[in-house]
């Protein structure tokens, strides 16, 4: 079995919300297929998105607490001093890169690839990947563990309860076509 917990990834806000992408990312991390990292800045953005989407404060606290309890070593600290030294197309993304540098991450998982220029990230030994590309890579590393993680994620899903095919359909609607197709082929 291939373990890739040494593979460290900073999860940008846009892959922590929506729920289905976050759940799959978290379940694969729970099964030790990679090590997730985030920062207070990322969680602050996540909270702001949940508020804009109408999630009540109690649920927001529950979701963020669960994430931090599930992955107690995920929170990156002491990266603030790096932020101002970095140069990205969108200055609001510098905190994500700073957290990735501070934690010696391998990848930033984000849907905003254009905001993380490949050559600039390479100078820090980093890459940025969209969730669909990252997830298919992780699944490919250990398909057996990945399908176990996916099945358990579906088993624990509530409100509403869905079967694996319904969850795959949702993943496709979230632009995780390659991921959903890969998981479907493994079922």
Low-confidence stretches: none
- Total E-strand runs: 5
Order of helices and strands: EHHEHHEHHEHEHHHH
Q: Count helical runs.
A: 11
**Alpha carbon gap, first and last residue:** 19 Å
What is the averaged pLDDT score?
94
- Label the overall shape: globular
The radius of gyration is 16 Å
Organism: Sediminicola luteus
Protein name: Nuclease
Overview of this protein structure:
This protein is of the alpha/beta class. The protein has a single domain, classed as Rossmann fold (3-Layer(aba) Sandwich), CATH 3.40.50. Helices cover 57% and strands 9% of the residues. The protein has helices at residues 13-16, 19-30, 40-52, 57-70, 80-83, 94-102, 118-122, 131-141, 143-156, 164-173, 177-186; strands at residues 8-11, 35-39, 75-76, 107-109, 127-129. Helix 8 (131-141) packs parallel to helix 11. It is globular.
